[in-house]
Amino acid sequence: MEFVLIAIAILLVGLVLGVSLLVGRGRRTTRLDDDAAAGTTLTRPRPPTPTTEAPPRPSGATASGMGTTAEPDAVSPEAPPEVELPPAAPEPGLVFETPPPSAGRLVRLRSRLARSQSNLGRGLLTVLARERLTEDDWEEVEETLLAADVGVAATQQIVDRLRTQSMVLATASGPELRRLLVRELTAVLGPDLDRSLGVDRHDGRPGIVLVVGVNGAGKTTTVGKIARVLVGDGRSVVLGAADTFRAAAADQLETWGERVGVLTVRGREGADPASVAFDAARTGIEGEVDTVVIDTAGRLHTKGGLMDELGKIKRVVEKVAPVTEVLLVLDATTGQNGVVQARVFTEAVTVTGVVLTKLDGTAKGGIVVSVQRELGIPVKLVGLGEGADDLAPFEPEAFAEALVGGAD
Ligand SMILES: Nc1nc2c(ncn2[C@@H]2O[C@H](COP(=O)(O)OP(=O)(O)OP(=O)(O)O)[C@@H](O)[C@H]2O)c(=O)[nH]1
Ligand SMILES: [Mg+2]
């Protein structure tokens, strides 16, 4: 009897232990799930760096204390139906790339200017190294500059300045000659122009960058590369796929964003681009990100339509936040044609900076000079290849050095 009682007691203790273990496991599982749920923002903008600003929402607009509550409050709380946000859950095992910072990129990428370098840099150095420069030689210098798309006015300036130094040239050593040429090229590249990008938050709202240009110029690629530059420099970013002309355009942009953990706000094919851009801006405001970068279409059924649309995108976005940078993307290989197209854009929106793409594919690196002079807008970024990080902030002296080549 005693034996039976002891057996029952052991059984009861075992049962209690078993149940408590099960409960414990259940709790742990739940906690794990909770953690996973809390950290599901991987494909969304990275959390903003802690600032002195007040709580995120709904009073985010008052955070800066600038009294700018009116504009964000004017935004309708309902999301426009056309805009689709990707699911917040991360794909298992997703690893984001960490792009290199943007500083010093132009120097690292200088070999990409090899075609311009051999035509312009080496061409000029060969002539200038001649012992006594004749009229024919100076004409050759002029032709070399013009052939590299430097433009008439800048060519004249360079030739005039070099001619006044012809006595120096006659006795200059190779490295001295090189230095002189770099100096003169730098001078026509506008070394004092402000090339900073309007990407910073201000008044409690993100910097908003609008990217425009003709089709095929490299807009979407550039938006993707800019996102990488910004992420590499430690900023949080939202992308807006306001090119709703082709469905593939948004996919293309989303792929760029996904690689670095940046959210892309997109619409259905044919959706109103201004509405997508608006929503991207609002998502950026709500997520308190640093910068919103908006890609636009390069082609519509009519040119007039495209320009009207760009104007509308800007106006609509500015209902919630000022556009802080309008970048015009130009394909360097199109030469003067690109400059003519660019003028049409500058009439539709106030362009604040030029991105010159495909400089790796042209022998006419001098286009940077003529684009700036003819448009009166600084070149802020240059595209030097199809690689994800082949976009560099434009630096006149480093560019002149790269064009002349032979420094290393
Ligand atoms: N070699 C080189 N190719 C580039 C550069 N930038 C862009 N491209 C290429 O140019 C092509 C067109 O680029 P996209 O970014 O799709 O051009 P887009 O302006 O968005 O074109 P649409 O959306 O049709 O208006 C792609 O094949 C890019 O890889 C560059 O700096 N160098
Ligand atoms: Mg595109």
Gist?
Pfam families: SRP54, SRP54_N. The protein is an alpha/beta fold.
Mean pLDDT: 80
Radius of gyration: 29 Å
Largest pleated sheet:
9 strands, mixed
Report the end-to-end length measured between terminal Cα atoms: 98 Å
The level of helicity is: 40-55%
How large is the count of helical segments? Answer: 15
What is the CATH T-level topology of the domain at 207-351? Rossmann fold
Q: Which architecture name of the domain at 207-351 does CATH use?
A: 3-Layer(aba) Sandwich
The ordered H/E elements are: HHEHHHHHHEHEHEHEHEHEHEEH
Number of strands: 9
Instruction: Provide the structure class.
Output: alpha/beta
How are the strands of the largest sheet arranged?
Answer: 1-4-3-5-2-6-7-8-9
Shape: elongated
* Uncertain stretches: 16-81
In this entry the ligands are: guanosine-5'-triphosphate, magnesium ion
Write a structural description:
The protein has 408 residues and is an alpha/beta fold. It has a domain at 207-351: P-loop containing nucleotide triphosphate hydrolases (Rossmann fold, 3-Layer(aba) Sandwich), CATH 3.40.50.300. It has 15 helices and nine strands. The chain has a nine-stranded mixed beta sheet, with helices on both faces. It is elongated, with a radius of gyration of 29 Å. The model is unreliable at 16-81 (pLDDT under 50). It binds guanosine-5'-triphosphate and magnesium ion.
Features:
single chain; 408 residues; alpha/beta; Rossmann fold; nine-stranded mixed sheet; 15 helices; 48% helix; 12% strand; binds guanosine-5'-triphosphate; binds magnesium ion
SSE blueprint:
Blueprint: H1 2-38, H2 70-73, E1 83-84, H3 105-108, H4 114-128, H5 135-147, H6 152-164, H7 166-171, H8 174-188, E2 207-212, H9 219-232, E3 237-242, H10 247-259, E4 263-267, H11 273-286, E5 291-296, H12 303-317, E6 323-331, H13 336-348, E7 353-357, H14 367-375, E8 379-383, E9 391-393, H15 396-404
Parallel strand pairs: 2-5, 2-6, 3-4, 3-5, 6-7, 7-8
Antiparallel strand pairs: 1-4, 8-9
Helix pairs in contact: 4-5, 5-6, 6-8, 8-15, 9-10, 11-12, 12-13, 13-14
The structure holds guanosine-5'-triphosphate and magnesium ion.
